[in-house]
Amino acid sequence: MLRQLFCVMTLSLSVPAWADTTAVYRASGAPFEMQVEVAANGNVRGKVMGQAAYFLTLSGEGYLVLETPTGPAVDRLGDVAAIMAETLDAMFTAHPELKNAMAQQPSILVQEHGTAVVGGRTGKAYFFVGQDQKRSPRAVAVVSDDPALAELGKAMAAQFDMSIKLNPMMGKSAFATQMSRILHGGTALTFGGGDLVSVRGATIDPARFVLPAKPETLDQARDRFKANGGHLP
Question: Which residues belong to the signal peptide in this entry (predicted)?
Answer without folding.
Answer: 1-19
